[in-house]
């Protein structure tokens, strides 16, 4: 898989990343470690050599599963993980990074994100300067190679950038969720900040596997996804019916169509989770798909039938 430059660094990342939130098991249903390991290894074998995880995913379990899957080829991979907002004081950042290094069985993290802004989830408010100073120390020590922020507004991103180089913004972004285009995208293009799109398949909606009356199992966090709310979900189903002929004409899946559209957007790479090895392989194939200008325009217009009706709240979930 052809790689792209991460921000202004010399780190090369794949346009589609293996997402491993589900490997942490917490807030997911029906996840087995053996399946997660097989999926991660299949993703890497298919060319997705950039792997995204976080300390909060199963309280480190996802990071440990990443290590169990690919520690033997760590030098061929790019590891991305995140520090949660409950650990943003200087010493907490240092300790959280050390824990992640142990979980991942590595001595460096390629890209280390602040997972959510300080104060999120009722966490203690910590000045961004304090957190960034700790990250700069870790970078100087070689324990992390690049710094990113996740779920930050443009104003929060610009403030963090006053205290150190930010090379990536991780944000929810898909054909059906495009708030980043309204605000931070232009700033990221100007500042050469890579956009890491999470929920790139709208948590499975863009695979087309969820019918009009789908209900999630108890404990599955996706039930709070605002795209599953009644009016939004009705428009989603109409849009999917319009996307299917385009995918069928190209001989690809809906998921591959959505991913190929997303990575064609400026500065954008897509994080795609997978429960099985087959899903991981299919996601990887999206990097090989080329969409014509007319195809991209048609897909864009269909997606806007959903996004134009969303309110101004950029949060993907009801909390």
Overall tally of domains: 1
What does the radius of gyration come to?
Answer: 19 Å
Low-confidence stretches: none
The largest beta-sheet arranges its strands as 3-4-5-6-7-8-9-10
Kindly report the CATH topology. TIM Barrel
DSSP helical segment count:
11
Strand content: 5-15%
CATH class wording: Alpha Beta
Mean pLDDT across all residues, rounded?
96
DSSP strand count = 10
Fraction in helix:
25-40%
**Helix and strand composition category:** alpha/beta
Give the helices and strands as they follow along the chain.
Answer: EEEHEHEHEHEHEHHEHHEHH
- Architecture, CATH level 2? Alpha-Beta Barrel
Give the N-terminus to C-terminus distance in angstroms.
37 Å
Structure notes:
The chain is of the alpha/beta class and 319 residues long. The chain has one domain: TIM Barrel, CATH 3.20.20.100. 39% of the residues lie in helices and 13% in strands. The chain is built from 11 helices and 10 strands. Strands 3-4-5-6-7-8-9-10 form an 8-stranded parallel β-barrel, surrounded by 5 helices. Strands 1-2 form a two-stranded antiparallel ribbon. Strand 3, helix 1 and strand 4 form a beta-alpha-beta unit. Helix 1 crosses helix 2 and helix 8 packs antiparallel against helix 11. The longest helix is centred in the C-terminal third of the chain and has 21 residues. It is globular, with a radius of gyration of 19 Å.
Summary tags:
319 residues; alpha/beta; 8-stranded parallel barrel; two-stranded antiparallel ribbon
Topology diagram in text:
Elements: E1 4-5, E2 12-13, E3 16-19, H1 33-45, E4 50-52, H2 61-70, E5 78-83, H3 90-104, E6 111-114, H4 128-140, E7 147-150, H5 154-161, E8 168-172, H6 179-182, H7 184-191, E9 194-198, H8 230-250, H9 254-262, E10 268-273, H10 277-285, H11 293-307
Parallel strand pairs: 3-4, 3-10, 4-5, 5-6, 6-7, 7-8, 8-9, 9-10
Antiparallel strand pairs: 1-2
Helix pairs in contact: 1-2, 1-10, 3-4, 8-11
């Amino acid at each position: 898989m052809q790689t792209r430059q991460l921000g202004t660094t010399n780190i090369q990342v794949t346009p589609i990343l293996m997402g491993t939130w589900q490997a942490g098991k917490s807030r997911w249903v029906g996840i087995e470690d053996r399946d997660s390991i097989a999926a991660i290894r299949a993703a890497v074998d298919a060319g997705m050599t950039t792997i995204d995880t976080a300390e909060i995913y199963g309280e480190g379990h996802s990071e440990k599963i990443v290590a169990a899957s690919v520690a033997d080829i760590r030098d061929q991979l790019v590891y991305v993980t995140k520090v949660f907002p409950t650990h943003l004081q200087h010493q907490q950042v240092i300790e959280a990074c050390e824990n992640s290094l142990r979980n991942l069985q590595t001595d460096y993290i390629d890209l280390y994100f602040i997972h959510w802004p300080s104060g999120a989830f009722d966490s203690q408010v910590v000045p961004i300067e304090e957190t960034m100073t700790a990250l700069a120390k870790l970078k100087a020590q070689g324990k992390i190679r690049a710094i990113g922020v996740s779920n930050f507004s443009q104003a929060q991103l610009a403030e963090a950038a006053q205290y150190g180089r930010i090379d990536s913004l991780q944000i929810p972004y898909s054909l059906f969720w495009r708030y980043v285009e309204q605000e931070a995208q232009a700033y990221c293009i100007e500042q050469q900040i890579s956009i890491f799109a999470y929920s790139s398949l709208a948590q499975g909606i863009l695979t087309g596997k969820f019918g009009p009356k789908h209900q999630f199992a108890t404990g599955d966090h996706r039930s709070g996804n605002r795209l599953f709310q009644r009016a939004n979900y009705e428009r989603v189903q109409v849009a999917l019916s319009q996307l299917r002929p385009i995918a069928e004409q190209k001989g690809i899946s809906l998921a591959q169509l959505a991913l190929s559209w997303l990575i064609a957007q400026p500065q954008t790479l897509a994080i795609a989770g997978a429960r099985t090895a087959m899903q991981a392989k299919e996601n990887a194939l999206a990097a090989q798909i080329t969409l014509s200008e007319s195809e991209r325009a048609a897909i864009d217009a269909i997606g806007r039938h959903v996004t134009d009706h969303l309110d101004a709240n950029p949060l993907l979930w009801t909390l």
